[in-house]
Amino acid sequence: MDTSEFIDLPEVVSARGCVHLPGSKSISNRALLLAALSEGTSEIRGLLASDDTARMREALCRLGVDVAPAGHDVWRVRGVGGALPIRRADLFLGNAGTAFRSLTAVLALAGGDYRLSGVPRMHERPIGDLVDALRRIGADIAYEAREGYPPLCIRPATIRPGGVLRVRGEVSSQFLSGLLMALPTTGAKTVVEVTGELISRPYVEITLSMMARFGVRVERDGWRRFVVPGDAYRSPGVFAVEGDASSASYFLALGAIGGGPLRVAGVGRDSVQGDARFAEALERMGARIAMGPDWIEAGAPEDGGLRGIELDGNDIPDAAMTLATTALFATGPTTLTNIASWRVKETDRLAAMATELEKLGAAVEEGADYLRITPPAELVSPPQGVDTYHDHRVAMSFSLAARGVPLRINDPDCVAKTFPGYFARFAEVTRAVPVIAVDGPSASGKGTIAARVAAALGWRYLDSGAIYRLAALAARRAGIPWDDEAGVAKIAAELDIEFGEASILLAGEEVDEAIRAEDISAGASRVAALPAVRRALLFRQRLFRRAPGLVADGRDMGSVVFPDAQTRVFLTASVEVRAQRRYKQLIDKGIAANITPLLLDLRERDLRDSQRSVAPLRQSEGAHLLDTSNLSIGETVAQVLAWSKGASG
């Protein structure tokens, strides 16, 4: 069950293949803006389709620029020659920092009346250094709420073009990039001097390279002084967007920790993006790296595993986040330094990464501008899942941890900011721990068959039918009322369970008889109706999916809990045969029984289970149907094993 609330990633056994990357966000938004300011019409190919680029497109359209689709991932932009047609607009830019900072600079020089706002987190991201620089040449910009932060109100002003303009470089390179792209619209040569250390320099390199493609060449003296001419932007005609190097980092890391080879296509040796140098960091950790003009490939070390390193992350701040989770699979600690800029991104990424890495069992030292990660002896899968803080890069970085454990990622849709199809691509190039799902009606023999198949293969076994009974029993023992949804859900998420062919252990205690008691059965029905408990137990069941494999029995294993199961089997038998089996089980246990009520009970249960609103009993698509009415246990086990062998190739 993958929802907008969470996605459950199975434990990954290996990763290999090829991923064609979406367009770079940094290049896409710069291309849209420069094309809009240019003379002539531009065709932008490979434009990233994401929340951030959608905010830029919407803003440009509201400013009177003709931005229209012209094919798959192709957009046509009719430039306005530096003069925006609309001089009054209220623009909502979400959490798109690239769009917000660059449009602030452009609109401050446009002579119009504008308001710029975003999501609450955007209003916590500082912009004062950029505003101060623009005010020095006459821009009229007011803070609507807190000094130094959006929302902003821009009023018409007399701009004093030319001269020397100073901007601080240690908070965000987007301030400098925004100024550089906006200044040519003044028509005068301007010198921009950077005070303090300029961070994220490769992103400024992208800006300079793209400005040159659109006809404006900036001269620079190191990273301190930039001479911006007052030349007009001119359309290059066709502009192709590179694949996103930051997005490439997740798959390159996946190849390094998952065996590989895993290739990313769309970015390579000739890339203008600094994050392409992430491959060098992986190589330092021991990964095998190969590359061509527009591709990079990563694989696991030939001898031994990855090793921890110390890295200055200033030049690759986004990709450095990927190293923080790659470090979980290295020998020895990994230290990332010079990453203070993480604190003013979509969230405080330093704090977020430290918190979630610790949930996975890592020892983390968090400083003002660094992280030191010491991997755990064994990764832990937090029952509450990994929180993403509405930050796409947190979500994608932590997906790598599924190489070690099944993992729940909360708010997975946040990846739409830059990579809407990320988790689908992730699934395409990874092989998960295999599952055999054995479903069927009550007394069809699925528990016995599944347990014996698991024993034959040496795999783990899950008796899902006992899960809700165990939750009810554990809640009672903890003094938690069965109608306390949050309390029972917490108990359910942390159940310490072990299944054997003829045993069920709860916290090490045999409880097979205890969970069959009539009152516990009633409690199981009550807790099963609580949505939070169902969500918790769904993940708890999925946590049984560990190497080398899992055999799970129940009524919705193949349809709901493990829809990607390698082998799905639906066992059935006539109701008369099932009643006889149940009768024999009870008699063997010394329990008095009568065949007639057993037969009636099974018929009623079949009807009830088939009509349940949640996970009704039915054969899942692609499942093998096996009628065991005339088969022995041994024959049934042999058939399931044969199907499993066929599925594994």
Outline the structure in words.
β29 and β30 form a beta hairpin. The protein is an alpha/beta fold. The mean pLDDT is 93. The chain has 21 helices and 33 strands. It folds into three domains: 6-22 and 242-431, Enolpyruvate transferase domain (UDP-n-acetylglucosamine1-carboxyvinyl-transferase, Chain, Alpha-beta prism); 25-240, Enolpyruvate transferase domain (UDP-n-acetylglucosamine1-carboxyvinyl-transferase, Chain, Alpha-beta prism), CATH 3.65.10; 435-647, Rossmann fold. The strands form nine sheets. It has a five-stranded mixed sheet with strand order 16-17-15-2-25. The chain has a five-stranded parallel sheet with strand order 27-31-26-32-33, with helices on one face. The protein starts with 5 loop residues before the first strand and ends with a helix.
Structural class: alpha/beta
Q: DSSP helix count? A: 21
CATH class category name of the largest domain: Alpha Beta
Secondary structure tally: strands:
33
Low-confidence stretches: none
The major β-sheet equals: 5 strands, mixed
User: What is the helix fraction of residues, given as a range?
Assistant: 25-40%
Arithmetic mean pLDDT:
93
